[in-house]
Write a structure and sequence with these properties.
The complex is a heterodimer of chains A (about 550) and B (about 550). With about 550 residues, chain A is mainly α. Chain A contains 23 helices and two strands. Classes of the chains: A mainly alpha (about 550), B mainly alpha (about 550).
């Protein structure tokens, strides 16, 4: 053990690297500040929330600054001795996602202020957990290394388990938290097992290296194929858990129902988006480095899981009576749609025209607005209804409180994905990306998606029926102005984005391009080549591949 | 003004709809009337363009001579350029004017809103009504497929609410059924939209020397959403029609034709996807039934001509026999169903199924006369069926039931109304001299003409001609049961049709006669030019395809 440590060269990051990762540092600083704040300013919910927003704003400032640096100097890596390995990356994708998370955090904070702040005693703990999970999620999208991936997923998950159980007086909340944690622990174990198999086989946890070397192993057949295939699938399980892809989705409805609604809104978008963008990054790495034979196999696996996810999500949503469970299944279905984009794995030669990441980015942005709006209305209605989260609680809302029902309508119809709402334009980008890939698999996926759109119409409309077609003698709901403004802003933005979608698409295109992509040969130069060569059975490696990575 | 005329007409109702949200309750219907009235008056200006018809050369010398064109870039990606592209030609002009006309009358028919059984939300009603009008007008003038699709779907939500909130007892069921059926038709259209774009890109890449654009004269180099370009570009037509062009291993043209056809067939509607129509028409309030029958059904027929046959004539040839069977079944089955109804409104609804069967028959034989007949039938039905629905609405307002067998002798108690009713129903019957006759006669003639091309044409024409007898049967029978006979005690005191009702009935009745007596001057002159050019276009494409298949 001591010899191993001695072999690590003396290393300290350069000052510029601190600048590149200033958002993360500001993020950690905010966390510490909120933890310490009660000692100085007390536990007042509004003060803490204000502090959190200031911290978020500072982090956003640094994120924008780093974005400027990246746009002139290209993607960077740092705060790690292994600069080629992509342990921690600052590139367009990771910074974009940080920005998205920060904006979303502000939205969630506003929602929390209007719904929960009044009766909350543990505001500092809430914000530490919320912002902490956000940091974990942002790290998930900033790495190429399986070790860092595992750490980031755990970093995102642990606060999430706690925050789901934050409704301390409710049994259902504790149950949800426990279910979530057990499920998360098992998937983490599976993922770690897969990671250890991969490390044992390839001698590296750098995905770039693995992608470049996995082709001949998978093509070779026999025990190695089984082993590596299984290991890759195990790692995928960990990500699928975050995305809540079928069949790793069982935690999702329970956790979403038990948690406070603003937490549900947070998890339904942020945790899934993090998982999806991590998946997109892996897909990108594979597209750059792996051969066609690997790509096709991986694409089929992802396509099958995406099909299962959206179909099962939509079918299960159909019979729910709790609106939170229904929206939970709807979020599973949407994760399935986005995964369909991840199935677009095309050959390395055409990576420049790779639109899948751009599609997912645009989708995530609109999906955030739709879910923030929908869950926002649910939270507002629920808070005045004695925590009744059944769909029938919405009866007559359209006539008593149109200021809540109309944004809800916009969000729900947008979730179905029909014009004139932005959900349509993102679905269109998705279908166009599938169509552009132009092969039978993707056309089939496109047909699966449109048929799912049709299935989903039915259950989303159940809420609309309650709101507008049913009568109710309930009085109008009085809700705080900030909450109403928030959900209406989401609803109106959904129309605006449909009419003026170019800025969204341009940005999505820009941030999905120029991702950090190390050249696989560099690692070999730095001395790890030995371990790579030892760990891979030689008879399984085709000669050209040797040349590619040796020189 | 002149170059934005179409856009003004399309969006005026929506602007009026937004304005009426901010005016006092008693002014709402006047704002709505002003909006739809102004749209109608402006649409009359279009007659100036089309005056003189073919003799004046307004239809150009090839399919695709458009007027009042407005095109601007809308959604641009690095892959596609979606345009805001509207324009009008002989195919859309009559339907466009019909839409503004029927909408104006329907708006007038909504004026007794306050006396309806459900009379809450007058602002919402008229806002949705005007939004619906914008959607309908947009469908007829958009020449960019994406824009067409957006308008097509924009109609769904207003129609859903108009039926679901202000409809009859089973409104909820009827509304969701309408929504699901229509969306079911349009989801496959969405896949078609994606496929047509990417295949047209392939086409111009494969035959660059043939890809001369109708519009600029320069070669087309990218995929296109331009509906006219898709039908007139030689490269695209050649590639689409080839047997070697496949999607999911199915020949492209027939498959795409079906994808589009299903959507339009549901809208038209034809058996077996017609079941939404009796429910929606019967449950909808009278003005909405007028819109449904007068305009919405025509979108199916328009879609056939513009998209299915305009772009995939080879597919039309492929499916012709199958479509003729559906058409004949629709004619006969619709008529038989109408005969069996005891609900007055349902009878009129089923008569629509039967009448729209003629439209499909006239189109599917692909002859000039057939096309002309189908178009005329659409216009005629667009005048006679709103009249019939309004006639039913008038007595429903008085009697509060629609049981045919409980009526009798209404002509005697309401002579003015009875005369208009007889006129309207005879027009629907197809009495020579009234508008219904010309369309049916042309369709049957056109079907006979197709005898040399399709060996089933004579049989189809004979069966369809038998439908005329059935139509006469159920209409004469209903006139006898409702309007003739001795005066019944309970209906004796019914007030005569009032001024507003006559204001709606009189123009419709006048048009029934005018179109029947002067079909050339009132309709054919304004559309035949374009239809002839479309047929020429179709013939040249199918001949090329046949020659290719033969060689």
């Amino acid at each position: 053990m001591t010899e191993l440590i001695a072999e690590i060269p003396a290393w300290f990051p350069k000052a510029a690297e601190f600048m590149t990762f200033s958002p993360e540092l500001a993020w950690v600083g905010t966390l510490c500040l909120i933890m310490l704040a009660p000692l100085a300013i007390g536990r007042d919910a509004r003060m803490i929330a204000g502090l959190a927003v200031v911290g978020i704003a500072v982090t956003a400032f640094f994120t924008l600054k780093v974005m400027g640096i990246i746009s002139t100097e290209g993607p960077k890596t740092g705060l790690t001795p292994d600069l080629a390995g992509g342990m921690l990356i600052a590139d367009n994708l990771s910074l974009f996602f940080k920005m998205l998370l920060l904006v979303f955090l502000v939205g969630i904070s506003i929602l929390w202020m209007s719904v929960s702040a009044a009766q909350e005693d543990d505001a500092p703990e809430f914000f530490v957990l919320l912002i902490g999970s956000a940091l974990g999620m942002s790290l998930m999208v900033s790495t190429h290394n399986i070790l860092m991936m595992v750490i980031a997923i755990e970093f995102a998950s642990l606060p999430s388990y706690a925050i789901v159980g934050f409704n301390k007086h409710k049994r259902i909340s504790a149950e949800a938290s426990l279910k979530y944690m057990i499920f998360g622990a098992v998937s983490a174990a599976v993922m770690l097992y897969g990671a250890s198999l991969i490390y044992g086989f390839f001698g590296t946890l750098d995905v770039t290296q693995i992608a470049a070397n996995v082709g001949p192993v998978l093509a070779g057949g026999g025990a190695n194929q089984l082993l590596v295939g299984l290991a890759m699938f195990c790692v995928f399980v960990g990500i699928a858990f975050k995305i809540s892809a079928v069949p790793f989705h069982f935690w999702c409805p329970d956790a979403f129902q038990g948690a406070k609604t603003e937490v549900t809104a947070w998890l339904s978008v942020a945790s899934k988006a993090a998982g999806l963008l991590l998946l997109m990054r892996l897909v990108n790495v594979f597209c750059v480095n792996a051969g066609a034979e690997v790509l096709h196999g991986v694409a089929v696996v992802i396509a099958v899981i995406a099909t299962l996810t959206c179909t099962l999500g939509n079918l299960a949503a159909y019979k729910q009576t709790s609106i939170k469970r229904m929206l939970a299944y709807s979020s599973i279905a949407h994760a399935g749609y986005m995964m369909a984009a991840a199935a677009i794995l095309v050959d390395a030669g055409t990576v420049e025209s790779f639109t899948a990441i751009s599609t997912v980015l645009a989708y995530v942005v609109v999906y955030m607005l739709m879910n923030l709006g929908a869950f926002g209305v649910v939270a507002l209605v629920e808070s005045k209804n004695g925590d009744d989260d059944s769909i029938t609680a919405f009866a007559g809302l359209g006539w008593t409180s149109p200021a809540l029902a109309i944004p809800m309508l916009f969000c729900l119809v947008s979730l179905v994905g029909i014009p004139p709402f932005a959900g349509f334009i993102t679905k269109w980008y998705l279908l166009a990306a599938l169509g552009e890939a132009a092969s039978g698999l993707y056309w089939a996926l496109a047909i699966v998606i449109v048929i799912n759109t049709l299935i989903s119409l039915w259950y989303y409309m159940r809420v609309v029926v309650q709101m507008f077609l049913k009568e109710s003698d309930k009085p109008a709901i009085e809700v705080p102005m900030s909450g109403t403004l928030l959900v209406n802003a989401c609803g109106i933005l959904l129309i605006v984005i449909l009419v003026f979608s170019n800025p969204l698409k341009e940005r999505a295109d820009r941030y999905s391009a120029g991702l950090f992509s190390p050249v696989p040969t560099k690692l070999a130069d730095q001395g790890s080549a030995d371990s790579l060569a030892q760990s891979i059975p030689l008879d399984n490696i085709a000669a050209p591949q040797e040349g590619k990575h040796g020189g | 003004m002149d170059q934005h005329l179409i856009s003004w007409i399309v969006f005026l109702p929506m602007i009026a709809g937004l304005v009426l949200l901010f005016v006092p309750r008693e002014l709402v219907k006047w704002v709505a009337l002003f909006g739809s009235g102004l749209a109608f008056v402006l649409s009359l200006l279009l007659f100036k363009t089309f005056w003189g018809g073919d003799a004046a050369g307004v239809f150009g010398d090839a399919y695709g001579a458009l007027h009042h064109v407005e095109r601007a870039s809308w959604i641009t990606g690095n892959k596609f350029n979606i345009e805001y592209f509207v324009g009008i030609d002989g195919l859309s002009f009559p339907l466009f004017v019909l839409t503004t006309f029927v909408s104006l009358l329907a708006c007038l028919a909504s004026f007794n809103f306050d006396s309806w059984k459900i009379n809450k939300g007058i602002k919402a009603y008229f806002f949705l009504f005007l939004l619906l009008e914008t959607g309908m007008l947009g469908v007829f003038v958009s020449l960019d497929f994406f824009l067409f699709y957006v308008f097509w779907e924009v109609m769904l939500l207003p129609m859903y609410f108009l039926i679901g909130v202000w409809g009859g007892e089973r409104r909820e069921y009827a509304a969701i059924k309408f929504f699901i059926f229509t969306l079911a038709g349009s989801v496959l259209m969405l896949v078609g939209l994606v496929a047509m774009f990417f295949y047209s890109a392939d086409a111009v890449a494969k035959y660059p020397e043939m890809a001369t654009s109708y519009h600029t004269g320069a070669p087309v180099t990218t995929g296109t959403f331009d509906l006219i370009e898709l039908s007139t570009n030689d490269a695209i037509q050649k590639y689409f029609g080839e047997a070697s062009t496949t999607l999911l291993n199915v020949r492209f043209a027939p498959l795409m034709f079906m994808f589009l056809f299903i959507g339009f067939a549901i809208k038209l509607p034809c058996v077996p996807v017609h079941t939404w129509l009796p429910d929606a028409h019967v449950q909808a309030p009278t003005p909405i039934s007028m819109i449904l029958a007068g305009v919405l059904l025509k979108m199916g027929g328009y879609g056939f001509l513009r998209l299915c046959y305009g772009i995939f004539p080879v597919g039309g040839e492929f499916w012709a026999g199958f479509l003729a069977v559906i058409a004949v079944i629709s004619i006969l089955y619709g008529a038989l169903c109408a005969m069996a109804q005891t609900d007055f409104k349902k009878l009129v609804a089923y008569s629509s199924v039967s009448h729209m069967g003629y439209v499909l028959l006239g189109i599917c034989v692909m002859t000039t006369t057939g096309f002309q007949g189908a178009m005329f039938q659409m216009i005629a039905h667009g005048i006679s069926s709103p009249m019939c629905f309004f006639l039913v609405g008038v007595i429903y307002d008085r009697a509060h039931h629609r049981e045919i067998n409980r009526f009798g002798g209404l002509w005697l108690s309401m002579p003015r109304y009875g005369s208009m009713a007889t006129l309207g129903f005879f027009a629907s019957l197809g009495l020579p001299g009234l508008c219904g006759f010309v369309g049916e006669a042309y369709v049957l003639l056109g079907t006979f003409q197709a005898g040399p091309k399709f060996d089933w044409a004579y049989t189809a024409a004979i069966c369809a001609a038998f439908g005329v007898v059935l139509t006469a049967g159920y209409i004469l029978w209903v006139i006898q049961r409702v309007y003739l006979g001795s005066v019944r005690e309970e209906y004796k005191s019914f007030p005569e049709a009032n001024g507003r009702e006559m204001l709606i009935l009189a123009p419709l009745g006048a048009l029934c006669i005018l179109l029947g007596v002067l079909p050339k001057q009132t309709v054919f002159d304004f559309m035949n030019g374009t239809l002839n050019l479309l047929i020429n276009q179709i013939d040249s494409v199918t001949q090329v395809a046949m020659a290719a298949a033969g060689g």
